[in-house]
Amino acid sequence: MADIKANDSTYIANTYARFPLQIVKGKGAVAYDETGKKYIDLGAGIAVNSFGYADDFWQEAVIAQVRALQHTSNLYYTEPCVKLAKMLCERAGMCRVFFSNSGAEANECAIKTARRYSFLKYGEGRHTIITLKNSFHGRTITTLAATGQDSFHTEFGPFTEGFVYATPGDIPELHRLTDENACAAIMIETIQGEGGVNELPADYIAEIVKLGKEKDILIIVDEVQTGNGRTGELYSFMHYGFTPDIVSTAKGLAGGLPLGATMLGEKVKDTLTPGSHGSTFGGNPVCCAGAVSVLERIDDAFLADVRKKSDYIRAQLEGAPGVVSVSGRGLMLGIECTRPAKEVIADCLAGGVLVLSAKTKVRLLPPLSIGFDELAEAIAILKEALAK
Ligand SMILES: Cc1ncc(COP(=O)(O)O)c(C=O)c1O
């Protein structure tokens, strides 16, 4: 561990404040460090390992694909990406998919698609995209610009122009912004994840959808964190009874392999044409085979189970000592606590439980497949840390 730490700090760009933990292997919701100490993981690699570590079914699908074909260019057809695109479209009510490798790239494609749609239909200048204050959409120059947090808008400028930021829940301001700007799209996370696990008010979402329809402003839902079963529906927009024009997702989609997907609805299904966008690795057959094995299992019964686990966690935590409130949906939960989140996280780590933070909250994003026994064991340790 000492060697790894020293070499990490010498040779790896200094962008992450790592915890003093080296994970060497895992199975299901359990990770092990190099000494064999066990940790129940309520973070899942930040909502990525949908079925936990080294899931048998997922491994089989991925390994079979590695043996058959690890990569070819997008100049040729491959089966896994077509199969996955069909599944995504049928399950999400969308028409076509563009595959990339990450959440930021999935959002880049969403933004490019919205701007091209508007350009082809209305000409130059109608390109503004309204995003929300406190949002998070990625780390590229454009997705940083889309992120509605001033702290991300320094030192790397100039940023991509054409984003304005709305206050979540403020309907009159939303009307003003759509009146004052030539808008191509409104982009939202239904639950702001990095922003502190804050759910948007349902009436605000309904107003966005209404305005979008009235003014032909595209609705983009960033489901990078909320997608793929995380909130107890396959995609979080399904809680609110509407279908967006564009949906971006990544993280949990391929169960631990890098894959981004931008799903295109009826209005924009033909907006992207040959040469207008592309990716070398996007739609990689191994990642897509992993994703098919994930999506295949996220059926209604599985989603009902995710909601049950969520109810269990809430029942355990709401009103418990040290807990101010619990926010979020499904297995994407934020805990406002009386102790600093950092201290709670450190105590959990020492006690063998991995949890995350989001702003001032402790954030839980366990594998969707976590068993009730493991969940009970981890929540008991978390409760002790919260109550200290
Ligand atoms: C809502 C949302 N959008 C986009 C991103 C960026 O994803 P990636 O890190 O895969 O580029 C994240 C990552 O946390 C996210 O939570």
Question: Descriptors for this entry?
Answer:
Aspartate Aminotransferase, domain 1; binds pyridoxal-5'-phosphate; 4-stranded mixed beta sheet; 7-stranded mixed beta sheet; alpha/beta; 12 helices; Aspartate Aminotransferase, domain 2; 388 residues
Topology:
Blueprint: H1 2-11, E1 23-27, E2 30-33, E3 38-41, H2 44-47, H3 56-68, H4 79-92, E4 96-100, H5 103-122, E5 128-132, H6 141-146, E6 163-166, H7 171-180, E7 183-188, E8 191-192, E9 198-199, H8 202-215, E10 218-222, E11 246-249, E12 260-264, H9 285-295, H10 300-317, E13 323-329, E14 332-337, H11 341-351, E15 353-354, E16 356-358, E17 361-364, H12 372-387
Parallel strand pairs: 3-15, 5-6, 5-7, 7-10, 10-11
Antiparallel strand pairs: 1-2, 2-3, 4-12, 8-9, 11-12, 13-14, 14-17, 16-17
Helix pairs in contact: 3-9, 4-9, 7-8, 10-12, 11-12
The structure holds pyridoxal-5'-phosphate (PLP).
